From TrEMBL:
Residues 1-22 form the signal peptide. Residues 637-759 form the OmpA-like domain. It is found in: Cell outer membrane. This is OmpA family protein. Keywords: Cell outer membrane, Membrane, Signal. The lineage of its organism: Bacteria, Pseudomonadati, Bacteroidota, Cytophagia, Cytophagales. Pfam families: CarboxypepD_reg (PF13620), OmpA (PF00691), PD40 (PF07676). The keyword Iron does not apply. It comes from Spirosoma flavum.
Length: 759
């Protein structure tokens, strides 16, 4: 396998030291290749030493076999790794526990799960800190859970794959950017010492429609694609290959690609900002860590006029450890990445860092729910708070498996779930990207039936349809336009509307607990539960909900964030009956929605709460009608949110509050009175005319004038911060030397407020 970007993250290795000083020339040569991370050469040298050198000391033989097994492991040659580790365990009893772990992993990667289970058990007995021994021993007792949803998937090998490694696809415009070791230049390319393969670059295919595979997913592989020989048949839908020639891919950017490795990347939603993985590009010794290895770093770049420019390192890079495999969250407020920095749980861990208007926060480890004693890599944040990643530390089918974690406030509150076969195999499966509901997407794998070592695959997941039918309990007639709230694993997820036949439907996921709540004016709310923890062979399933006539009132609405008016997920919404003090609570899902049934003749209070957001309350008096639906939406103000006061402008070189500005500040005054614990920063900006020093002073005076206005209206000064930014944050390109109209300049003479605390 040619996944150097993954391998380099693990390059900080602990090497075994030889206990015997007198070494043969062959052994010295092998050890030198091993220490230089030249594993192809090391394998040859160790095999030659073990085969030819007859005067070997037992300790020399033992250590040579350990290093040979490790070299095969790093080259992803699991067959030979299994052979060497098997010979070691038969011949020696004084082995480190890691040998048993590596043997167990090699056996699993070769599909020998029972034998692997025994080795994991022995590994667990030899040490007590690493829980993988115990977890994998139990997991391999029953493999069925990895295959529960396998019949729903169809997998296709893509025509963009080459004879070299191709992996880590990422959506870009209408196509895919991916990593490849192919050599499209026609000239001799430098090779990487690790396994004598070309360095990695970023490539682009502009149209995913050309990658779609029509018709059956059981096809023959062209010999021209495989590189010679007769036509080869693929015997199984999980590894189907399209019957057409290799599709040409183009260099993504000659600016971003260098003579070293460029690896997995991520884009912001507007696709004008990229963060990508690259070897430490510093020249000479300064580019290496203290152990002599060029670590991986993350770099950013901006697209201007079709060209990637302003390549910069992210501030949390280091020469002493690697950072790589970036993945922006769908809203661009945070980025996930992988690192072996000190303080982690295992080899490589997944971290998250806040990203706000181009500014980076401090990286935070994702915690033990995500990270293990093994290696977690290749994160991808899908719409809907799902984080996908690959791991060899969580229980899987062998090698790296794809896992998914549902996040709530950044925490994998229900642990992680194996994506199962055929997405996962006994080999390495990684670089997974998909849509919100995991119906289509792409991933990488070095499974047996690919074209090369790492190939990119597409997948489609067939819908397991569930029909939800809503009826009038008395008449049995279907109820049209009834709301059906879908809850997944106890959380609000989606809201559907029944059709004229009283029906709505959805594609259900495996291993999920559902609840469906039906709501309609004039009827009492009712619900039914449904589980997919066990699979039904039927392609279409039905559940029915019957509603009784009632005089209850229904209140429903959507929680949104005030800063961008987007639905807020993970908000605890409580409806309190102020008469009998009873309460109902729901947690919002991706649509931010909530629904409650209210008893008549009682006042109610709705409260919306979420960490780092100001608590919002809305009160309802006694309803006049006995049966009705009340609709409302609530907005939340969050810490760090920045709001531009669009009508606060200043005359040139002035800092007095104009009448139009006073009206806008009165709006801020109302917010501060509603949330008495809120603290804000008043941020004032100037246009680019005049000197920097003058503009800083002018903007500080303007911010102070806005603060003084609010203080004069009764806001305590300790709740306000006034700060001037001068011309440092121009919003429309009207910088020094650019001719702009007076109206354009006035847009930069503005004041914003930023929420600093809500308590």
């Amino acid at each position: 396998m040619n996944r150097i970007v993954r391998v380099l993250l693990l390059a900080g290795l602990a090497f075994w030291s030889l206990t015997v000083q007198a070494q043969s020339a062959r052994l010295r040569a092998a050890n030198k290749q091993f220490e230089n991370l030249s594993y192809v050469s090391a394998v040859r040298a160790y095999e030659e030493f073990l085969r030819a050198d007859k005067k070997k000391e037992p300790a020399e033989t033992r250590d040579a076999m350990i290093k040979l097994g490790y070299s095969y492991r790093k080259l992803q040659d699991t067959r030979n790794a299994e052979r060497v580790y098997g010979e070691l365990i038969k011949s020696y009893t004084d082995l480190d526990s890691e040998v048993y772990l590596y043997y167990a992993q090699s056996l699993a990667a070769n599909g020998k799960y029972r034998d692997s289970q025994k080795m994991y058990s022995q590994y667990g007995e030899k040490q007590g800190q690493d829980l993988r021994g115990r977890r994998f021993t139990v997991s391999y007792m029953d493999m069925s859970r990895f295959y529960q949803d396998s019949s729903s998937y169809r997998i296709y090998n893509l025509p963009i794959n080459s004879r070299q490694a191709d992996f880590s696809p990422m959506y870009y415009k209408n196509g895919l950017v991916f990593v490849s070791a192919r050599d499209e230049s026609g000239v001799v390319k430098r090779v990487f010492n690790w396994n004598q393969t070309p360095f990695l670059d970023l490539y682009f295919h502009p149209d995913t429609n050309q990658l779609r595979v029509p018709g059956s997913d059981l096809r023959a592989v062209s010999s021209s694609v495989l590189g010679g020989g007769s036509e080869t048949k693929i015997d199984g839908p999980e590894s189907a290959v399209e019957m057409k020639p290799l599709t040409k891919a183009e260099i993504f950017s000659r600016t971003l690609n260098t003579k070293y490795h460029e690896g997995p990347m991520t884009f912001t939603k507007d696709q004008n900002y990229i963060v990508f993985t690259r070897n430490n590009a510093s020249k000479g010794k300064s580019g290496k860590s203290s152990d002599g290895v060029k670590k991986l770093k993350l770099y950013s770049s901006v697209n201007r006029n079709g060209k990637w420019v302003d390549i910069q390192e992210v501030p949390f890079n280091s020469n002493e450890y690697s950072v790589g495999h970036p993945a922006f969250s769908p809203d661009n407020t945070k980025m996930y990445f992988v690192s072996d920095m000190p303080g982690g749980y295992g080899g490589t861990d997944i971290y998250v860092v806040e990203f706000n208007n181009g500014q980076w926060g401090t990286p935070v480890n994702m915690g033990k729910e995500i990270n293990t004693e093994g290696n977690e890599m290749f994160p991808f944040a899908a719409e809907g708070e799902n984080l996908y990643f690959s791991s060899d530390g969580h229980e899987g089918l062998g090698g790296l498996d794809v896992f998914v974690a549902e996040l709530k406030d950044g925490i994998a509150y229900k642990g992680v779930q194996n994506a199962g076969a055929p997405i996962n195999s006994e080999k390495d499966d990684f670089g997974f990207i998909t849509d919100r509901n995991r119906t289509t997407g792409y991933f990488s794998s070095n499974r047996k039936k690919g074209i090369s070592d790492d190939d990119i695959y597409s997948f489609r997941r067939a819908c397991k349809q569930l029909n939800i039918l809503v009826f009038d309990a008395k008449t049995g007639s279907p109820l049209e336009n009834a709301d059906v709230r879908i809850l997944r694993n106890g959380l609000n997820h989606d809201l559907r509307l029944t059709n004229v036949n009283g029906r709505t439907d959805l594609c259900v996921d495996s291993n999920t607990e559902y609840e469906f709540r039906a709501i309609k004016e004039g009827f009492a709310m009712n619900s039914i539960r449904f589980s997919t923890l066990t699979q039904s062979p039927r392609p279409v399933l039905n559940v029915s909900i019957y509603l009784e006539r009632s005089e209850n009132t229904v209140v429903k609405g959507v929680i949104k964030t005030e800063v961008n008016q987007q639905p807020a997920t993970g908000v605890k919404v409580t409806l309190r009956n102020d008469k009998d003090k009873s309460e109902q609570t729901v947690m919002t899902g991706p649509d931010g929605g909530y629904e409650f049934a209210m008893k008549p003749n009682a006042p109610y209070t709705i409260t919306a709460q979420k960490d780092r957001y100001a608590t919002k309350k809305a009160q309802y008096g006694k309803t006049k009608r006995k049966s009705q639906v009340l609709t409302d939406s609530l907005g939340l103000y969050g810490v760090g949110d920045i709001f531009q006061l669009k009508n606060i402008y200043y005359d040139l070189n002035k800092f007095f509050i104009r009448a139009d500005a006073a009206r806008e500040l009165d709006h801020v005054l109302g917010i501060l009175k509603e949330y008495p614990q809120m603290q804000i920063e008043l941020r004032s900006h100037t246009d680019a005319r005049a000197t920097d020093t003058y503009n800083i002073r002018l903007s500080e005076n303007r911010a102070r004038a806005a603060m003084d206005y609010l203080v004069s209206r009764g806001v305590p000064a300790n709740r306000l911060i006034a700060r001037g930014y001068g011309e440092s944050e121009i919003i429309n390109g009207c910088i020094d030397g650019v001719n702009c109209s007076e109206n354009d300049h006035q847009q930069n003479r503005r004041t914003e407020f930023k929420i600093m605390a809500v308590q």
